Amino acid sequence: MALVDRNFCVMFCHIGNKGKISDGTVFRDSVLFEKLQRNSLQLPQPKPLSNGDVNVPYVFVADNGFPLHRNIMKPFPGEHSEGSTRRNFNRKLSSVRIVVENTFGVMSARFRVLRKPITLQPNKASKVVMACSLLHNFLRKSCNSRSIYTPSGYIDTVVNGEIINSVTWRQDIGEGEGAFRSMRNIARCSALTAIEVRNKFAEHFRDMN
């Protein structure tokens, strides 16, 4: 499990859980969850959105594999009609979540060891994955290497709200997802405050249109 920033760099990486356990267990086993529960991540103080007067917390963007939390936003479940507030919110979230997909995709394309399950002891495999993450960050942050590591057109982009998929890293990986696997979704109840926060963001995106 990883947390990435808008520049496709890995900010946090949790490695070592068994592949068959649920997403909730993976997340709860992480230091990120522990710090989130203790409110010790030193996140910026909540601020009003541009069109509101209610303080809204800073959030991480996630998919349905994660719990809804006042600091974790995921899509509204189910199908929603075109033009609806919930569908618009889900589309906005998807355009941001492509950063995560592309980060994993680029790493799998560039570091071939990640294209299939790593046949090493768990502690050694964890070190390999962490090393790949650190090398990925170094190559992304260096002005000299970034244009070679991820040249123009290598990563997906969003144009006028529409996601433009790049086929380059997908072609490099080939069939399948490589060694990365999506975590399992598990239905769970959300705290009322988390639902209220998501609704505030949904209303904000609706009013921006």
TrEMBL record:
Superkingdom in the source lineage: Eukaryota
Subcellular compartments: Nucleus
Swiss-Prot/TrEMBL keywords: Hydrolase, Metal-binding, Nuclease, Nucleus
InterPro entries: HARBI1-like (IPR045249), HARBI1_dom (IPR027806)
Record GO cellular component, one term: nucleus
Residue ranges crossing the lipid bilayer per the database entry: none
Location (main, coarse): nucleus
Ranges where the DDE Tnp4 domain occurs: 2-137
MF annotations from Gene Ontology: hydrolase activity; metal ion binding; nuclease activity
Cofactor: a divalent metal cation
Family: Belongs to the HARBI1 family.
UniProt protein name: DDE Tnp4 domain-containing protein
Species annotation: Parnassius mnemosyne
Lineage: Eukaryota, Metazoa, Ecdysozoa, Arthropoda, Hexapoda
